[in-house]
Amino acid sequence: xxxxxxxMTPELAETREKLCGIPGHLAFKQSLVEQFDGSWTLSTCxxxxxxxxxxxxxxxxxxxxxxKEVAEERLNQDLIATGIxxxxxxxxxxxxxxxxxxxxxxxxxxxxxYAEGFEGHLEAGRxxxxxxxxxxxxxxxxxxxxxxxxxxxxxxxxxxxxxSITQAVTDSFRNNSGPTKTDLINELASVDLLVIDEVGxxxxxxxxxxxxxxxxxxxxRRYQLIKPTILVSNQKPDDLHNFIGPRAADRLRENEGLxxxxxxxxxxxxxxx
Length: 273
What we know:
The protein has helices at residues 46-54, 61-81, 102-116, 118-124, 138-153, 162-174, 181-190, 211-224, 237-244, 246-253, and strands at 12-18, 28-34, 40-42, 128-132, 157-161, 193-199, 229-233, 258-262. The chain is 44% helix and 16% strand. The chain contains 10 helices and 8 strands. The radius of gyration is 21 Å and the shape is globular. A hairpin with a 5-residue loop joins strand 2 (28-34) and strand 3 (40-42). It has a 5-stranded parallel β-sheet with strand order 5-6-7-4-8, sandwiched between helices. A 3-stranded antiparallel β-sheet has the order 1-2-3, with no helix packed on it. Helix 1 (46-54) crosses helix 2 and helix 8 packs parallel to helix 10 (246-253). The two termini are 32 Å apart. By secondary structure, it is of the alpha/beta class. The protein has 2 domains: 12-81, no CATH class; 86-262, 3-Layer(aba) Sandwich (Rossmann fold).
């Protein structure tokens, strides 16, 4: 179920009326709720939940169990809200395989330090660019950073592709009742960390492609709010800077913006990156 153009909420399936059996508790809509790990969980009686949270001594198992369930539900919602697709939901910093490759170890180290020190990067609005060949694990590490800041630090994050931003804005021009371009940019600026994937994967058509200027608007909006952005691209640094424009490139470099180079060949032919 989508509550916005980019930020998702858990899918619900097989909703039905249910009675918990406790006298005085009304029927509730029980649903199967999507979990970030791919499983589904049955929702429980809200009256029982409220009773356990607020009318049960805090040292009782019922209260402790309800508190744990609420925390798990909020984490699940926050993780699904990142937009990480099922293919990348198992990606973590620890599951990124480097072997003895010094270049891979360096890229992983930069990403790990960025994730673990994210509070400082958020305060500075410090950006990170992951750049290199296709199939080298850039999206893996970008999703791993997102999961780390959500799971371990309680921050909000979102990953989108450059093309999806362009498509959403294009759709807004055609649908007067939907979100406006300003609404979409504000939404992309609302999260603590935004990852823009697949930047520059297509050739720009002169006079017909507004993706570069749109990306500049998103980057600049987050820059003004002192919020960090991660860009993931297969382009070389000079080519990327030409694609997004010098002003956007300067925004990313400001406050000691970081670059993680992915200089090795694709692992998709059988490697594990």
